[in-house]
Amino acid sequence: MSAPAQAAAPARFAAGATVRVKDDWPERRGPCHIRTPHYIRGRTGTVVRPLGAFPNPEDLAFARPAPTRTLYHVLFAQEPLWHEGKPGDTVMVEVFEHWLEEA
Amino acid sequence: MPDDIPVPATHDMGGIARFHCTPVEHDEAPPDAFGRQVDALRQVLAGKKLMTVDELRRGIESIPEGEYFALGYYERWLRSIALLMVEKGIVEKDVLP
Amino acid sequence: MAAPPRADSLALLDRLMAALQAKGVVTPAEIAERQANTDKASPETGARMVAKAWTDPAYRALLLSDGKAAAEAMGVSMAGAPPLGVLENTPTRHHLVVCTLCSCYPRAVLGYPPNWYKSFAYRSRAVREPRAVLAEWGLNLSDSVEIRVVDSTADYRWMVLPMRPAGTEGWEEARLAALVTRDSLVGVAVPAAA
């Protein structure tokens, strides 16, 4: 992909890695801007692939210096997220590395 | 609701119950003159490095829930752009409602 | 339908534009020029890219590996645009694009997002009950097809590469492109040979 892959730390997770999204709720601590939707927090998914590195939007939103972070496409089974839906259907979300931990 | 079940932010809409029974209306109307002007204004200000799309989003997300749902799409953009221009000291705050 | 802007919003835009002009920050000509440029983007671009990918394996490979370069190869200026990712539908996988947090949309190749894409109902429901949303719009996919909802949450913009419909063998690119609707590039429809 033509991600404007800026010099950043090498991607911590490879395609196929099982990852857990941090169960963190910064919106309870004060003003913030985050791109990790609520419905995947605390959930386990699979890395589809790294998408390159981008300045952290959590800093850009407040015009702060923004270090680059690796962005991943992470795949989740749909049914466990909602307790409804057809098994086999999935949701794929762009998630920054600092929101992910090994699972 | 117990305190330990976090409530998603207003804009964080994936899967929320509020619109569970609302059909997706086939609205194909093109943006009106107001929307197109706000859209162009955002692009011009971004091109001049006076704001980023991330700041735009943060401003939209700060709109109180009642207004967030009451305002149209580009009305929310405009609220955010105006707030940012005041916050950055580019225009005076008497611009705001 | 989307309501017209409120009087207080029109007044706010007037005040903000007047203040920005008074400070020498923007001119009406700049706004008009940018608006004219934005108005030119349309789903015909995405449709041409798809039709070319259906007929040219090398272009298909480029489209799937680097959407931005593939758009530029069609003469679209992508300077300053976010990266464009392209998602390939197959007989066993159908992609549906949504942005639950705002309304991220591949505007460079599809133009302005339609109102329904920005609607609260689409943003909340597409990710949770995609089959119900698609069925309401007349698209009933087989249970053997995985629906992969793509929540456009960060720096990429996503476009779907739909499957080429049966019965279009030998068609020229322009005729194929006419089959590719905006909806099929978002994933709420699939192209069909009439």
Descriptive report:
By secondary structure, chain A is mostly beta strands. Chain A has helices at residues 57-60, 78-82, and strands at 18-21, 44-55, 68-77, 90-96, 100-102. Chain A has a single domain, classed as Roll (SH3 type barrels), CATH 2.30.30.50. Chain A has 2 helices and 5 strands, in the order ββαβαββ. Chain A has a 5-stranded antiparallel sheet with strand order 4-3-2-1-5. The mean pLDDT of chain B is 93. Chain B has helices at 33-47, 53-61, 65-70, 73-87. Chain B is globular, with a radius of gyration of 16 Å. In chain C, 46% of the residues lie in helices and 11% in strands. Chain C has helices at 7-22, 28-40, 43-55, 57-65, 67-73, 107-110, 115-118, 120-125, 130-136, 173-177, 182-186; strands at residues 84-88, 93-98, 146-151, 157-161. In chain C, strands 1-4 form a two-stranded parallel sheet. A two-stranded parallel ribbon of chain C has the order 2-3. In chain C, helix 3 (43-55) crosses helix 4 (57-65) and helix 4 (57-65) packs across helix 5 (67-73). Chains in contact: A-B, A-C, B-C. The A-B interface holds A 25, 27-28, 31, 33, 37-39, 57, 60-63, 81-82 and B 6, 8-9, 12, 14-15, 52, 54-55, 57-58, 61-62. Strand 4 of chain A pairs parallel with strand 3 (146-151) of chain C.
Short descriptors:
heterotrimer; B: 97 residues; mainly alpha; Cyclin A, domain 1; 0% strand; globular; C: 194 residues; Nitrile Hydratase, Chain A; 2 domains; two-stranded parallel ribbon; 46% helix
List how many beta strands of chain B DSSP finds.
Answer: 0
- N-to-C span of chain B: 34 Å
Number of helices of chain C: 11
> How much β-strand is present in the residues of chain C?
5-15%
Topology-level CATH name of the domain at 30-95 in chain B: Cyclin A, domain 1
CATH homology superfamily of the largest domain in chain C = Nitrile hydratase alpha /Thiocyanate hydrolase gamma
Global mean pLDDT of chain B:
93
Rg of chain C is 19 Å
| Spatial gap, N to C terminus of chain C | 29 Å
- Supply the number of helical segments of chain B: 4
Instruction: Tell me the Rg of chain B in angstroms.
Output: 16 Å
Second-tier CATH architecture of the largest domain in chain C: Alpha-Beta Complex
- The helix/strand class of chain C is mainly alpha
- Poorly predicted tracts of residues of chain C: none
Backbone shape of chain C: globular
**Oligomer category:** heterotrimer
- The number of distinct structural domains of chain C comes to 2
Mean pLDDT of chain C: 96
Order of strands side by side in the largest beta sheet of chain C?
A: 1-4
For the sheet with most strands of chain B, the description reads: none
Q: Which pair of protein chains has the largest interface, and what are the residue counts?
A: B-C, 53 and 51 residues
